Amino acid sequence: MDRTATRNTGLLVASVASLLCFALVAAWQASGASASFDRAGLLYWREMPLLFPVGPAWLTQAMQGLTIMGGGPFRIALGLFVLTLLLARRHIRESLMLLAIMIPAAAINSGLKLLFARPRPDIVPRLDGFSDLSFPSGHSFNGAATYLGLALIMAGLRSRTRYWLVVPALCLSLAIAFSRVWLGVHYPTDAIAGWLGGTGWATMVAYLMQPRASRD
Question: What is the spatial distance between Cα 154 and Cα 135, in angstroms, rounded to a whole number?
Fold first, then answer.
C-alpha cells in the first residue's frame, strides 16, 4: 500500500471511529447514565466550598484564552485569513475543503444542540457568558473541525510537513474542549462528544475531497 492509500485509509478509519464514538457518547448522555460521570468531572477541578477552579488565577486565564481560540469570532477570522492565502495561491480544492469543513460544522453542531436540547450545567459557577444549549459543545466541535481541518490541508500542501501537523492540532482542540469543562459551561460529555464530532467531520471531508485517483 503506497503513502496515498495509507493516508486515505487513515482518514476513513479516523472518521468512522470518531463518529461511532460520538454516537456512543450521545446515547450515553441521552439515557441519563452519564449523570454521575458528568457531575464528578465538573467537581473534580473545583475547590470547596465556593466551587471555583483549583490552581492559580493564570491557569483559569489560560483556559479563557483557549476558549477564545475555539470561539466563533477567532475561528472565522482565522478561516478567512487562511482562505485568502489559499485563493491567492490558487489552491482551489484546498479552499473548497476549508469551506466544506468549517461552514457545515457550525450548522451541524447547532442542529445537534437543538436535537438533544440539553441545558447548561448549573452545578458550578460558569466563568463564561454562554447560555445556549449544551450538547455537544460548539467550541469543542468547531475547534476540532477547524484546527484539524487546517492541519490536514497544510499537510496536503507541504510534503515535508506531512501529518505531524495533526498532532499539535489535535492537542490544541483537546485543550479547547477541556477549557469548556474547566470554565463550568459544559459537562465533560458535551466536550468529549463535541471533540469527537468535529474530528469525525474534518476527517470525513478530507477523505471525500481527496482526488479521485488518490482514493482508487
Answer: 30
What digits encode the pLDDT tens for the residues 136-187? 999 999 999 999 999 999 887 766 656 688 899 999 999 999 999 999 899 9
Cα gap 103→78, rounded to integer Å: 13
56/76 Cα distance (integer angstroms): 31
Q: Is 47 helix (H, G, I), strand (E, B) or coil?
A: strand
For residues 66-103, one letter each, b for 16 or more C-beta atoms within 10 angstroms of the residue's C-beta and e for the rest, the string is bbebbbeeebeeebeebbeebeeeebeebbebbebbbe
What stretches of the chain show up as alpha helix (H) in DSSP?
3-30, 35-43, 57-69, 72-88, 92-116, 138-157, 166-182, 188-208, 212-215
- pTM of the entire predicted model: 0.90
With both helix axes pointing from N to C terminus, report the angle between 166-182 and 188-208 in degrees, rounded to the nearest 10: 150
